[in-house]
TrEMBL record:
Keyword Glycosyltransferase tagged: yes
Protein name as it appears in the record: Glycosyltransferase 2-like domain-containing protein
Spans traversing the lipid bilayer: none
Provenance organism: Novosphingobium endophyticum
Family indicated by similarity: Belongs to the glycosyltransferase 2 family.
Swiss-Prot/TrEMBL keywords: Glycosyltransferase, Transferase
InterPro entries membership: Glyco_trans_2-like (IPR001173), Glycosyltransf_2 (IPR050834), Nucleotide-diphossugar_trans (IPR029044)
Entry GO MF terms: glycosyltransferase activity
Ranges where the Glycosyltransferase 2-like domain occurs: 7-168
PANTHER family in the record: GLYCOSYLTRANSFERASE (PTHR43685), GLYCOSYLTRANSFERASE EPSE-RELATED (PTHR43685:SF5)
Length: 330
């Protein structure tokens, strides 16, 4: 078979709800020289059947069916299965605009110094209705990308990314230690070997809903991202990255030992706590104890009393009382 210009990489786990729309949006691309790798990661719903039905109709789809191994393993497998020099990421719950691949392939062809290009997003909810998001759009050029890293702003929408496969493989692909923030860690590692940016067009409809991974694993994701940033700073300073060979990050209270100095865990809590104040999952899970310890360590109290009220609205009166007592005695 002739080599396609693009390999589209999609991992699916129990994605039946939005999967058909995601697949159809790829098959409708105006740039159609691609293979479409869809890996079913041991789904227990109708995902495999949906994938099989579309594969029977379109020869560009290469289905991969196997047992569950997790997203990071699936993404790395897709990287190694890809035949094209360019890989386009896609998730099973989002929708690509028809012109997405045409715009991104043109950008990479005209900007050989760029290794990754994303796009701005149109944010939607589970019913395809507009979803209100505040904050900055993703940075357009590499200088803006570095600025976004330093300021903790959004870097790139993972399912909107298109990248040169060899560059991603050269930094080791996705790292298992950064589960649930594997893309953020990858962008930070790539920033030292390639240029990254996003086309200022809303080429993907990015979906927000309560059961998505970023909602279900908010605390672990935020801690992982904070550690990834610290590792980025270590590398930028010419120091050894202690996370480079890890399969899993250690508990938060072991990070001082991992990085070989005191205060690392406290710095991570200070970076993470403000990002969990609006997370229902984080406040109901391990993020709550992290926030309380952050307050006891003298952390910023802005918005904390509003978080007490939020806990009451979330049906967590005991946690609301605990946080109030922590604030009152600090």
């Amino acid at each position: 078979m002739p080599m396609p210009a693009i390999s589209v990489a999609m991992s699916v786990y129990n994605g039946e709800r939005f999967l058909a729309s995601a697949i159809k949006s790829i098959l409708a691309q105006t740039f159609d020289d691609f293979e479409f790798l869809i890996l079913d990661d041991g789904s227990t719903d109708a995902s495999a059947r949906i994938i099989g039905n579309y594969a029977a109709k379109d020869s560009r789809i290469r289905p991969i069916m196997r047992e569950n191994r997790g997203l990071v393993a699936s993404l790395n497998e897709l990287l190694h299965e890809a035949r094209a020099p360019i890989v386009a990421r896609m998730d099973a719950d989002d929708i690509s605009r028809p012109e997405r691949f045409a715009r991104q392939t043109s950008f990479l062809a005209n900007n050989p110094d760029y290794g990754v290009v994303g796009s701005w997003t149109e944010d939607i909810d589970e019913n395809d209705e507009p979803y209100q998001v505040t904050g900055n759009d993703h940075p357009q050029d590499h200088a803006g990308f570095i600025e976004a890293i330093e300021n903790g702003w959004p870097l790139m929408c993972h399912p909107a990314a298109m990248f040169r496969r060899d560059i991603v493989l050269s930094v080791g692909g996705y790292h298992a230690a950064f589960r649930h923030c594997e893309d953020y860690d990858l962008w930070l590692r790539l920033a030292s070997v390639a240029r990254l940016g996003s086309i200022p067009e809303r080429l993907i409809r990015y979906r927000h809903y309560e059961n998505q991974v970023s909602s279900r694993h908010a605390t672990e994701q935020q801690i992982g991202a904070a550690v990834a940033y610290l590792a980025y700073c270590e590398r930028a300073a010419g120091l050894r990255d202690p996370t480079a060979d890890l399969d899993r990050l250690p508990p938060l209270n072991e990070l001082d030992a991992l990085f070989g100095r005191q205060g690392v865990a406290r710095a991570i809590r200070a970076r993470v706590a403000p990002n969990l104040l609006y997370s229902r999952t984080g406040l109901r899970g391990d993020g709550f104890d992290l926030i309380c310890r952050y307050v006891r360590e003298g952390g910023c109290r802005d918005g904390m009393w509003r978080t007490v009220a939020r806990l009451l609205r979330f049906g967590e009166p005991l946690r609301a009382a605990r946080l109030a007592a922590t604030l009152a005695t600090g």
